[in-house]
Batch of 4 targets.
Target 1
Amino acid sequence: MTSSKFLLKGGALPDGTLHDIVIEGELITTVHAGISDPQATVIDATGCVILPGLVDLHTHLRQPGREDAETVESASRAGAKGGFTALSAMANTSPVADNAGVVEQVYRLGQEAGLLDVFPIGAVTQGLKGEALSEIGAMADSVARVRVFSDDGMCVFDPLVMRRALEYIKKFNGVIAQHAQEPRLTVGAQMNEGEISARLGLRGWPAIAEEAIIARDVLLTDHVQSRLHVCHVTTAGGVEIIRWAKARGINVTAEVTPHHLLLTDDLSCSYDPVFKVNPPLRTEKDIHALREALADGTIDIVATDHAPHTMESKECEWQEASFGMLGLETALSIVQKTMVDTGLMKWQDVADRMSKAPATIGGYDQQGQGIAPGNFANLTVVNPSQTWTVDRDLVQSRSRNTPFHGYQLPGVLTHTFYKGKATLLNGVVA
Amino acid sequence: MRHLLSISDLSAHDAIVILDTAAELERVSDGQVKKLPTLRGRTIVNLFAEDSTRTRISFEAAAKRLSADVINFSAKGSSISKGESLKDTAMTLQAMGADAVVIRHSASGAPQRLADSQWMTGSVINAGDGTHEHPSQALLDAFTIRKHLGKGGSNLAGIKVAIVGDVLHSRVARSNVLLLTLLGAHVTLVAPPTLLPVGVESWPVNISYNFDDVVAGVDVVMMLRVQQERMSDLFFPNAREYSRYFGLNLQRLAKMQPHAIIMHPGPMNRGLEIAAEVADSARSVIVEQVANGVSVRMAILYVLLAGAPLESESKL
Amino acid sequence: MSVALSASDISRALIRISHEILEKNQGASNLTLLGIPTRGAHLASRIAQSIASIEGCEVPVGMLDITMHRDDLRIRPLRAIMSTSIPREGIEGRDVILIDDVLFSGRTIRAALDALGEIGRPRSVQLAVLVDRGHRELPIRADFVGKNLPTSPSQSVRVRLTEIDGADEVLIEGESH
């Protein structure tokens, strides 16, 4: 790993201004036009956009428990490749991250890998069972300093449990990240309920199952004056509820995944489980609403829901297959394709939705900072005018379940700097 | 055409070729000829990961009448029930040199997974997958309807068909909706709202919740099986109520047009979706459906396996 | 492309074949005509009419589709199967006259013999063809031939009949060498 002095020349900051940037040690030391420094390693960033290092609030690293699918180390490499300087490790590992021991272990593994920050997310309930609260306080006070709690994969369905959790985390300004899925309406659900599921004979996951929980939770959040984050919003109706809640001043934030910004449920027609994901791919109408909401800030952030799975859990019948898809290495390109190249957002907005806002929600002080002298040198360099082709055999992740295999995408990531270290240098992970 | 996975793989022309072929094969079989040499030396595997004796026997008889070698690979005692993956099973079949696999599976889309994978190269014939499709059943149903009510034409233009019962979970209904409308029939689905899929509005059919409104106006009443496990799943209050509103009983039989026929893909729940007297009545062609199954499946095997493999072919 | 047989040539050939069939079989009483679809079936009907006008009696006539018995199914695109209709008398003990338009490799006739064998056991099977163009690949010969047409293998012989094609003629297409 290279950690020395770097000079990024000729790149554009998110606001479009051209500046050279000097990185020394962990920090950005100079941001100015026309710098030359013979001691620095010069990186030609002409034609590139320089973003603050990307922050993912929703990542499945699979360790401990499913190291055959992913490890903290391999996910860190995938993150660096995708321009990330921080990941948030979801709690649904085995054992579940519902106590200080597991979150500290994951945190330490992240430190050891040293390619980016790994911030553990704690489980809301013990064993993700939705019954008894996990050791939320102990996790918050641990070395891992957990602030985000989620039973992701499972919905905190019991309204009383949700209420208590929302109240309890106020003690340290935590946030509950809810996987909004009404369980009774989604028994055995396989894909979005609609025209396509009717034809394919796959059991439907109705939009209402998401929207009903979002509606309940924003009302609960309002009632107990706490903070709610809605994971992976997928429906136009869900967007409307969040928009309404924000207008009322309810402290709710929301995320959308890259795949829900691009892919629709008709991909299930192949019965290829690489398109099986929870929440499921929805319709064109939903995609339109999600993009609009991300652009206008109703949806605050993009989060990957990176979900690696081994070959055998995807090379099978649809209904037997696991839910989830890879996301880290394609996230920025998908956002460029769906939001920037369509004119819906500027790079400044990308910097906000993929770095500053997620860092703020997660309470990650050293992430999502502006590109200015004295700030941590967490930076991502992307060439938006170049394209690349996704190849599942060439991913950094241990798994290959990317739904974008064969896609030609815009935006080639050339460099990632994590606290001054080049974790991605000329497209190669350090 | 290499696989038969869904009726949506077929054009109207393809479907009529299969029905016409079946009609000729039936005439041959009705005469003295019991066996044709057409598929001599070809291996057909019946891969039944879900019990269905009648469909398996029908395909087996069809394959044997065309002189194919048949290997039965059924759920009980096979490796499928021991958790072997579809992939491993497919690779085994490939190693055995299967020219075609007739697959019955509880997972919707399993036949398509087999066909699209690189695991095996033979033809895949969907013999019923989950709640998705059952194309050979629809073809034999269309064949039976054409035989009884076809007005000389090769298609089913203008024929009115009611499909009654658990459409939501029925692969027979899905395939029949696609095929019968493709052939020009008018289809009305009759079911309680709980047993119709969300999204059914986009199907080219009429929907009715009232069997009595429909029964007098149709040429064909096709009853669907109500599976026992639906009873406990809130789809309707109880069997008696289901039967009262959606069963084909003698009163409804009396309202049917004189020429109208009664069909059921089997196995029947006598007394639930169909009264015993109705099932055994002169209007019922249920037994004949079974007999027609062999000719239609011979035609499917012929169309899929007899021609030369083309360079560019995949699905039709 | 050249015309090998005109409408009147065809007509004369079929009348001659009818006479030859009757002569060889000493009448029509035990005859069953089976045409091989599609053109052979039409030729069978014509020969049946001709026999009827000569002898004043109806000859059972049917058609025999041999598609399912072909040995070249795997090397050619899929063929639609044609109708088979065996006269009510059946073929058991009958003198069956197979009728086809062109005799070439002999494989069609081989398949027809197999198909017949599945149906029953005729007393005899004889073969009548409108054109014999040679190039046999099996030990098969015709009993009654409308015309022997020497051809090269690269040429093709097209029989056109009024019932299907709107006119009666036999054409040879392609160069002889």
Target 2
Amino acid sequence: MKKFINNIDDILIESLNGFATAHTDLVSLHLAPNFLTRKNKAQNKVAIISGGGSGHEPLHAGYIGYGMLDAACPGHVFTSPTPDQMLAAAETVHAGKGILFIVKNYAGDVMNFEMAAEMLPFESATVLTSDDCAVVNSTYTSGRRGVAGTVIVEKCVGSLAETGATLQACKALGDKVNNRTASIGVALTSCTVPAAGRPTFDISDTELEMGVGIHGEPGRRRETMREADEIVSDCVDAILTDFKLRNIEPAENKAALLLINGFGATPLMELYLIYNTAAKLFNQHGIQISRSLVGNYTTALDMAGVSVTLCLLDDEIKQHWDSPVHTAALRVGM
Amino acid sequence: MKTDFIINAAKAVQQTIITNEHTLESLDREIGDGDHYINMKRGTTAIAGMHIELASLPPAEALNKIGLKLLSTIGGASGPLLASFFMAMAKMLKENGDESNLKFAEAFAAGVQAIIQRGKADIGEKTMLDVLIPVADQFVLLTTQNCDVKLVCASLMHTAEQGMLATKSLIATKGRAAGLGERAIGHIDPGAKSCQLMIEAVCNLILKE
């Protein structure tokens, strides 16, 4: 393993300190328990708190700021944060209208946020994101995983919350966006959890993992490496099949947001190549890609790979996607 | 059960986790995300370091403190699950008394029940419950029959090992490995392994005393 590390036990704190210093105009860092909040506390709105294991940067702290999150709770690498972090974050950002947790659907995250919600002295609701359509057979699963689509949920819900909407309305929009979003990931290499020091899984130069999760969890199947268009075509098919199976229809104008997300070690050049193919293929299926996002938005440490996310827009989702946002990782219209 | 024993057990549990670093890490790399050992080491080390603050507490309160500490140190799914175990066990000991092995067994079973509820899982799903449920059943049964404590320990270690080995042939329907479908077959569940190791360590401690 070759990584930029001083002391393995300090990487999270040093990284958080760096983030907070680099974005000192946007966020404040609180330690022991660890959480980050907006620099200037928002008033009279639902407070949106997300969190999860570290290693997915810029998720979630990179999305703190006007139009998106009020606070984020980073866990250790690929490990859920703990309830004391959520409770302390909630105390700090609560602005009289309740707390909305946005949680990726992993057993650890779900249970830790659930225990936090039980201990919380405020009204709260939770949006569970589950956009990963890689895991097809529901009898074998504890549910679909939350992956890059979480960014779209956080953006839209964050926008709605700025209008002073109720906790129920924010939850309803979050659930709707999640429902209208599907993702699938492909890994070309493993990732290496710094404290483990070794790749999480073995994969040869001639293989790819179709349906990989954002922690390097195995996906649908191991395949032989092929040309990009064929791989992207399988991703597009998986997403369209998923919407069909779940009976989710595009709106009348067939508009959609296409997010091509890098896992950390795939160059933007390749991400745009993938966008090029994916947009064409979705168009051939009658989907109009009217909004796009290409880059590293939900990473898996140093994994080489990509996820394709499609969100079927309607007027409400489009409005909240387009609204102003000012965070470290996403800045539009302000 | 005395608080002194709980403190010694915490040290024994930390020791067995550290001794088995390689096993736990490789099991989790096969069907999980590779962080199980790190998380268990962090949690058990925090518990082992609590001896001074636990020493003066009655067993139930000591176990509750252990639960809260695990909740804030482990993270992942193991944190809330193990925390729920100790907090429920503490509650049962407080209500039911802690003066006999049977009461301890009943508290252990209450702890396992709390894991079932928190994790919404049951036996046969390739999780720690494949070890804990049979062990809890056997523990209550043998202590109800007033079985010799050495025999109880030997039996529980055997039951734990059987449960752990049984996860090898299961498809995971809960936890991180759930996405794997049939690809999880042939791999022992890391959570089941760490539970088996911890039960073994505590039983060995009792046998030594």
Target 3
Amino acid sequence: MTESPPPVVEMRGISLAFPGVKALQDVDFRLFPGEVHALMGENGAGKSTLIKTLTGVHRPDAGETVLAGEAVAFSSPGEAQHAGISTVYQEVNLCANLTVAENILLGREPRRLGGIDFPAMRRRAAEVLARIGVHIDPASSLSEHPIAVQQLVAIARAIAVDCRVLVLDEPTSSLDAGEVAELFRIMRVLRDEGVAILFVSHFLDQVYEISDRMTVLRNGMLVGEHLTADVDRRSLISQMIGRDLGTLEAIEDAAEKRTAQGPVLVQAEGLGRRGAIEPFDLEIRAGQVVGLAGLLGSGRTELARLLFGADRADSGRLLVDGAPLRLRGPRSAIAAGIAFSSEDRKGEGLVADLSIRDNLVLAMQAARGWTRPLPRRTKDHLVEKYLKALDIRPANPDALVRTLSGGNQQKVLLARWLVTEPRLLILDEPTRGIDIGAKAQIQQLVTTLAAEGTAVLFISAELEEVVRIADRIVVLRDRRKIAELDGSATGVDEVVELIAGGAAPDKEVVS
Amino acid sequence: MTALAPRVPTRFLPVLATVALFVLAFGVGSARYDGFASGQVIANLFIDNAFLIVLAAGMTFVILSGGIDLSVGSVVALSTMITASGLKAGWPVPLVIVVVLLTGSTLGLLMGLVIHKFDIQPFIVTLAGMFLARGLCFLISVESVSIKDKTFRAVATAAIELPGGVTITYNVVIALLVVAAAMYVLHRTRFGRSVYAVGGNESSALLMGLPTTRVKVGVYVISGLCSSLAGLLFSLYMLSGYGLHAVGMELDAIAAVVIGGTLLAGGVGYVLGGLAGVLVLGTIQTLISFQGTLSSWWTKIVIGVLLLVFIAVQRTMVRR
């Protein structure tokens, strides 16, 4: 990649402060036509803020943006789109109540005789979809399509205008491997057409596969800009988190050393629910980390929901401390000391408009019962303890949860459950969509909790993580438990083979 | 139903359900009472509810955008008051019409701006607007003011003859024109589609670069305009202006829109649904008056039950 063409976007000295947070400080950023440029950094590093500054959602306090040689200052996303900067956000930002064609062309519908020309609109939408190789009916309602397709529709919308810059903010976080490959194919097509693509992803593999150049941010400041070929992963990660990878190795050691196993805490005997998960046996001991491995839709979450009473089992029974327990709902599970941290941290669990303190206090107070108010001193003490223990940033108990980055929200959610001192903690995808630094901290925390005697059921799509952290690994496929393995003696390859191998689904591997 | 399913998209089902309900209610009436199944009874449904049809059309815009407008009943009353006292003071009819429509739209504009600028719930802002408009009526006069203007009376009593000896009033024509215009705006213009987008997901609409401000304020202007027009129709219907006219009519309008299948959460619904909702309400009223022995309060009871059923049905449909 030569530097012959001038950059299509050049941002110089961008600074932006939110109340109490310096989100960006003097950041420079360049984007060249016909390249895929990865924006790297931990959660809270300022990636999203920089993107939103570029796309007109935020206005910088200082600095200038030059688009194709002209200084610009967008005051709305509409203006930025008009100037040729299109954005696809992490969460699909479309209107599910409208048709695919409308979602692609809303706000720029073809018109005829003063009214919207629907046939022309459907034709135009079909053309755009065909350009990226997606074949769906433009007249169908968007809500009929799975998230992955909606994501592609969002991209179709982005390129339906003459776009010079395409911003993809974590487009892959809800896609499976095949869908990611499809997305990359589309990105390459657009890149070769001369579109400048800004790409954000937490998956390093993807970044190395697709990007030509990268800019690294940390704590709202520019760390560096490199050609992707020039940096190896190790130095990239240390640039992003500002420290080395020793922590991750320590976690693995701890998992191997952790041999002391407490008594059986929770035991499932033939527990199952039709259409969700077939009957399974499972034993979780105090101080043990049990990992659930399997593909999306293999029944991981469904299994966890049965243990938590969020769904009613229609066969088998659950024993807690050796005594059968009939779960009538999450309340009885919580009473039995079972906590469930859901994968949907936005929808379930956190009250985004309350402060960190209030979110934590809510959980403590609920655990104590409403008739016994918590003394202010205890509250402050506990809140401070968890802020520190989980390294929640900003370490300001009055910051609104809404303003925190994904990783920090996850930590607040975890803290919420931890204050109830659960005996079994079920973590469903606790590290999804968060950066390496926060991941390591959460894994570290799980290790510490187990050492203190808490049983943990750890669900993650990332096998490496499961294998690193778990004492025992339960492998699921097609809503069925197919194997249970010893965590310390198992490698990722072995688990992959089990998940992939369809030859002997009934094989019970117990080592 | 299953045979229809592939051809009729699920989004039309609520409207079709309302139409079916209307047909059913009308069928029951025709079977039970002599003279029920006549063209004039249908025409009367339109004549007696023309103002409500217009209100429902305006309300559909607001509800589609995810808002609510509680002020419409009071704006109807205020409009009748301005009309009656204006005519009494000798203003020419065109001037009265312009003043009334301007008042309604301005009130809508103000409410929309307050809702948008200060980010306050539409419920509260339009509740304030409701009290304001109602109070303004009594500022003009605490008494009922009758309308004696000749032109106005001529229009009010004029009958348009349709084939089959059925007669309708100009009110009906105006109401149907409003419905047609509302359908055109909602389905054929960018503004209309943006209303659906804002109601479906406001932050998405903003990020898609749509003019959300214009939509959010615009729907209240439209609703205000429709309310004042409905007020004019109501003046024609009652031939008087009074501060206690149209008490609670905003709730009838909301009920009609919701029974017509429009989601209170916004983003889903049709103007025709509102029209069907009004006709259902009107039919129930007609049924009860034909029955003769039931008190008119039974209308309210039936509307209440219908509303509950429809909201429950909508809820399950959204879940699915």
Target 4
Amino acid sequence: MHSNRTKTAPLPRIYLVSSGVESAENGKLLLNQLTRLPRSLSCMVQIREKKLSAKELLTLALKAREIELHENTLLLMNERLDLALAASLDGVHLPENACSVKVLRPLAPKLIYGCSAHSLSAMRIAEEAGADYLLFGPVFDTPSKRVYGAPQGIEKLEAICQATSLPVFALGGITPKNAPLCMAKGAYGIAALSLFQDSFRFADTIEELYFNMNPSCP
Amino acid sequence: MMPHPPFFCFITDETLCPVSLAEHALKGGAGMIQLRHKQASGSQLFLWAVTIRKLCRQYRALCIINDRVDIAMASQADGVHLGQQDMPIEAARKLLGQDRIIGVSASSIKEAMQAEKDGANYIGFGHIFPTSSKEKEYAPLGPETLRQAAAHISLPIVAIGGISHENAASLIASGASAVAVISAVSRATDPTLAAHNLLCAIQKSHS
């Protein structure tokens, strides 16, 4: 691990990816989710809103940063290191076709750099570039699968996890029921979008996930 | 830091290879290249930025990256060009420091004055004439508005929108330090020659 943050505290095991449906004025869903996050639990949170302009994304990120969160909760920006820095976020999540960690880390060594890796070759590239964690998916069928392609299945997740020493988050169709299976196959944690979009059930879902994944985990 | 006026800026065409176009424009005498490609992936943009930045150094021109401050930092480009929907100037300045160039698009005198106040290094002002390169929601500003803008702000103004070697000289005469073009170079049968003709046109107006 290269990041200062990860040296002091292990990465949280639950990873929330923002819905991607935020409109310019509000960013309501994400801010609502962050407000409802149980303070006793830490979480990875990625702001991924492709429809927003850079200006709107920065406004949303600054609002998110103002919310009081668990000290180990990490706020990440999808792809844009400049916006992550401008909003004092904790890191950047890089899609497979983004600028490499190798290029970006020297600009801001203390940040956390995660990489999407949907194949063994992409996993190797991310590992060599110095990623702090990997996001792999889609493991199961999911409403947001259009974004990530067809499900890859639990065996492929296992193969990726066995081939790398980096923490791997399983993404795509994750539920509190199948999360333990992902962990059993070697995932470090789980990531989701749709699962977290019911704001009334949000806090319960997070707690259920934590309990199912490991009753004693932080 | 900024090229000596009058100069011209070539903005890369969304649908054509930015590197070869940039090289044509530089051979023809461009003082500034702006890499602008909204659809490209981050890794592609970075590779283009590094290559164009090297070409620009070779031709003693500036390399400016549209919108992506991160790509500008990573590629050690000379600066960024920010639209009104991009990162605010103050935030970009904190990341880039005082030595890098920040250009800002303005489509009114009010926006231009605000950008000057916020610390921009030049104003991209337009569109001056009707243009086919981008869908526009408002009417062309015309040379008279450019003249007024030049009277209100002291920053260099780069006029943009529907500019060719035929009308470029009049804009320098109206107070622009430079003109920016896309299609006048990218769609020309001989882009290097088109760039050269543009340079001749603005230099003639200046002498």
